[in-house]
Amino acid sequence: MRFLGIFIFLLFQNCTVYRGTSVSADKAIEQDTKVVLVTNDGTKLKFKKLLKDENDLIGVAKKRKTLKYLDEQGIKYSDHGRMRHYLLDSLEVSEIYPKNKPVSTIVTVAVTVLVTFTVLVISAGIIIFSSWGG
After folding, report:
1. Which segments cross the bilayer (predicted)?
2. 74: left (phi over 0), alpha (psi -120 to 50) or beta
3. CB atoms near residue 103 (< 10 Å)
4. What letters, b where the CB count within 10 A reaches 16 and e where it falls short, cover 44-67?
5. How much is the pTM?
6. CA distances from 49 to 19, 42, 112, 126 (A)
7. With CB atoms 3.0 to 4.6 Å apart as the test, which of 23, 33, 39, 53 could cross-link to 99 if both were Cys?
8. Is the dihedral of CA 19, 103, 27, 46 positive or negative?
């Protein structure tokens, strides 16, 4: 039963792959997707997306590590349900990497197929060896 639970858990995992080249804030906003921001001190922060409000850059965050870092830096925010909208203008950002949607989809499908195939092979092996009786 535990094996089935692990299988179902792995089957519904979602992989996020980020682009290998940095883009401008405007390009990341235009793409309307998850992003990783790298600060000048090398810290990687994950955001659901970036927004522009007049001239202000806003990061929509939910990840604990990101929230903790931004709170420690004293970055202003407003709560929006389970998300926080951080005003990122005072944050020194060196790079922005958006989610690579096509590659993320391919990796997610590949992992699902691999997990399913592995479970089928293991199940077939168990059935064959348990019925062997020899």
Report:
1. 106-129
2. left
3. 15
4. ebbbbbbeeeeeebbbbbeeeebb
5. 0.76
6. 14, 20, 26, 46
7. 33
8. negative
Question: 74-94: per-residue pLDDT in tens?
Answer: 999 999 999 999 999 888 999
Distance from C-alpha of 124 to C-alpha of 127, rounded to nearest angstrom: 5
HSE value, Cβ hemisphere, 13 Å, CA-based, for 24 = 4
- Which tokens in the block code for residue 14? 């979602």
The residues facing 47 across adjacent strands are 35
Tokens standing for residue 83: 């998300």
SS (H, E, C) 63-131: CHHHHHHHHHCCCCEEEECCEEEEECCCCCEEEEEEECHHHHHHHHHHHHHHHHHHHHHHHHHHHHHHH
